[in-house]
Write a structure and sequence with these properties.
Helix content is 45%, strand content 9%.
Length: 468
């Protein structure tokens, strides 16, 4: 078994260790700004206040991002930056530097820039690479956001309390931007395909879930596609749900870098995940999808799709039928479970080696990401759930029917348990390298559920001994 693991794990070890050689340039002191007195009004047509009068040359801020091209969030992100530039016209200008819409490729570039001591002023998405994130923090490269957040009541009050708590270090410093919204992972399901299989509601228990899968298989409806290649996020998110069905499993999912996966909750989860492969689309093994770029096709052809609010835009490409949104519904995982995707994970940070005016511009952009305007727009556009704001009838009228149902579900009492999906707390080596290859081996019966759990444990050992 260890030989198998070594083959899987050692192939990327050198690449992951390269980033460890960056120098520590030390922090830059920046005085905190006054409290936010330019927060946009939430209920007026023009939701912005006047930007500060320019007293210097416009500060340009380059923002590298994978949210470009065909990436579903690209259009919304561009609109957000356009609005920020409008509010701060003559003072700050954010320029989007587009990269291919491939998160692993983008993060590989960030690791290379870290090794070369050449990171951009804003680094994201941090949650998908905790190893890079901790190295940035340990090197003293991140700006402490605490003075700015604490000096601005609007900014602070708009944040998710759990996100603020998670990003606040024991000494009170905040290096990663806390979020003002959250996107729990749930099941989106195609009611038309459910009806085709003779199913009139989403299953609420595991027994009902297996019965629905049997009914779909008998009627020729494909329940889901379980990818085994790439990040394999939908499959590993399902594994997260299955692990957390018991108190033992929820404790593991809530543990920061769990070290022992060889427990009954994980073995049982792998056992049921293996069983689910028997119902999945035949092309599952070897597939990298469904992902953000083909989610519409997945939702059109498979009955269930587990993901968070960020996927919403991908459901509606130009060739989608006008009534397609009306066919989609939202439900918790059986057992009343939702997965916390972002409220406790890292998001973005600001690199402190840049000139003060660049850092000030980045801080203002982070402040804008917690503004009333931004919160309302990401809620309407993507179905993100605000920390404090609750949508009005007007807001709901601007949403797709599935986005409205998603928010209503997330703000109801349907969630009995909410705990982090695997990316939030598992070590980055296991997330990116140790876990994904196990899926195809499990599906092909090359390993048992017990061996899969043991291999996750061995992956964590490898991380501590060779990567961390």
């Amino acid at each position: 078994m260890k030989k198998i693991l070594a083959v899987l794990l050692c192939a990327t070890m050198i690449a992951m260790l390269v980033a460890a050689c960056a120098q520590d340039p030390g922090p830059t002191d920046v005085a905190p700004p006054p409290a936010n007195d330019t927060a946009p009004a939430a209920d007026s047509e023009d939701t912005t206040a006047d930007a500060p009068a320019p007293s210097r040359d416009v500060v340009q801020l380059i923002y590298p991002t994978y949210q470009a091209g065909a990436q579903p969030e690209a259009e919304f992100f561009a609109r957000v930056i356009e609005e920020f530039n409008r509010q701060y016209e003559g003072v700050y200008e954010v320029i989007i530097e587009e990269h291919p819409p491939d998160i692993p490729m983008f993060l590989e570039r960030m690791n290379m820039l870290f090794a070369a001591d050449d990171l951009p002023v804003i680094v994201h998405p941090l949650m998908q690479d905790r190893l890079l994130t901790e190295r940035i923090f340990d090197a003293g490269l991140a700006v402490d956001l605490a003075p700015y957040i604490n000096a601005d009541p609007v900014w602070k009050e708009n944040l998710i309390p759990s996100s603020l708590e998670a990003q606040t270090r024991p000494d009170g410093q905040i290096f990663s931007q806390p979020l003002a919204y959250y996107s729990p992972i749930v099941f989106f399901y195609n009611t038309e395909l459910f009806a085709q299989a003779g199913v009139d509601k989403f299953p609420e228990t595991m027994d009902e879930f297996w019965a629905v899968l049997d009914q779909m298989k008998a009627s020729g409806v494909t329940p889901f596609l379980l990818p085994t290649e790439g990040a394999a996020f939908p499959s590993l998110a399902l594994l997260s749900w299955l692990i957390g069905r018991t108190e033992e499993g929820r404790q593991l999912m809530n543990t920061n870098i769990p070290e022992n996966f060889s427990i009954p909750a994980v073995v049982d989860a792998f056992t049921d995940l293996r069983r689910m492969f028997d119902y999945a689309a035949p092309e599952s093994v070897g597939s990298v999808g469904p992902d953000k770029l083909n989610a519409f096709r997945a939702a059109e052809k498979t009955a269930m799709y587990n993901m968070g609010a960020w996927i919403m835009g991908a459901f509606f490409p130009p060739d989608a039928a006008e009534d397609f949104a009306d066919k989609l519904a939202v439900a918790p995982f059986p057992g009343g479970i939702a997965l916390d995707h972002d409220s406790r994970g890292y998001s973005r940070c600001i690199i402190n080696t840049y000139p003060d005016d660049q850092i000030e511009a980045a801080i203002e952009l982070f402040r804008f990401f917690a503004s009333d305007w931004f919160i309302r727009e990401i809620m309407v556009d993507q179905g993100a759930v605000p920390a404090t704001y609750r949508p009005t009838d007007e807001d709901y009228s601007r949403m797709s029917s599935v986005a409205a149902e998603y928010i209503r579900t997330a703000t109801s009492d349907q969630f009995k348990y909410v705990y982090p999906q695997y990316q939030v707390n598992w070590d980055p080596y296991t997330v990116n390298t140790g876990a994904p290859p196990l899926l195809a081996m499990l599906a092909n019966d090359e390993i048992t559920p017990e061996e899969a759990a043991d291999m996750l444990t061995e992956s964590v050992i490898f991380y501590f001994e060779n990567v961390d």
